[in-house]
Amino acid sequence: MLLLRSPGVFGQPNPQARPQRPTTQSPASQPRPKAAAQQTYPAEQVRAGEVTFGAQCGFCHGKDAAGGESGPDLTRAELVAQDSKGDKIAPFVRAGRPNAGMPAFANLTAKELDSIVAFLHSQMDKFAELGGNRRTVDPSDLLTGNAAAGREYFNGAGKCSECHSATGDMAGIGKRVQGLNLLRRILYPAGPPGASSAKASIELSPGETVSGPLVGEDDFTLTVLDSSGARKTYEKSAVKVKIDDPLAAHFDQLAKYTDADIHNVYAYLESLK
After folding, report:
1. Is 202 helix (H, G, I), strand (E, B) or coil?
2. Cα–Cα distance between 264 and 143 in angstroms, integer?
3. Judging by beta carbons within 10 Å of its beta carbon (0-12, 13-18, 19+), is residue 33 exposed, middle or buried?
4. pTM above 0.70, yes or no
5. pLDDT above 50 for 78
6. CB-side neighbour CA atoms (13 Å) of 232
């Protein structure tokens, strides 16, 4: 959905030379890892694991363990495939990967961990029987661009360097944000949840002006937050409005990007580690 909304991604002639695609297979076409050993678990334990996994892990990895908001597809994970009765999964879950955004789950009981192990193995077997591959996007799927061309576009035609710096706000972004989340940041940047980057200055009458964060706008009205945080809506036809949005350049750029531009800039920013 994200890519289809971007005017330059599909169906637009590309005047630039497209980067050569990798000769290796896409990760999406790779076969699923095979379990090192066949394992069976009681149905009740699997159901208990489904509940525990959904509550503790589902937000990131999806309730079915096939990938979610930010976590990878565990039904394709080598760790799960090589695990035997929790010998690899349990220590990993308890320790977590804080540097990668996965917290340690040290408070889970042995019974809860065993049930999660049972659920993950059950899901891996289930998805293997269904055939096909994964539904998620790995960072390596998006690395089809040319980082050098991306740097040239960033500092030249794209005018990105007028507001951003590879040694300033963009330093290390390839380590902080990966994959589809990085592509989203390029195409549809946003501030903290609930925040608005746009500010509106509204002239109600000569000498009477109100201003505040713009939180809503349509063809006829606009809504701002006043100094107390209350929403105020004004008819556009009755006032004079000036809007300052530091992200406007990003949205204007959507109509200018080519497919190659997007993936080259992605490759460049991904290299800033």
Report:
1. strand
2. 9
3. middle
4. no
5. yes
6. 17
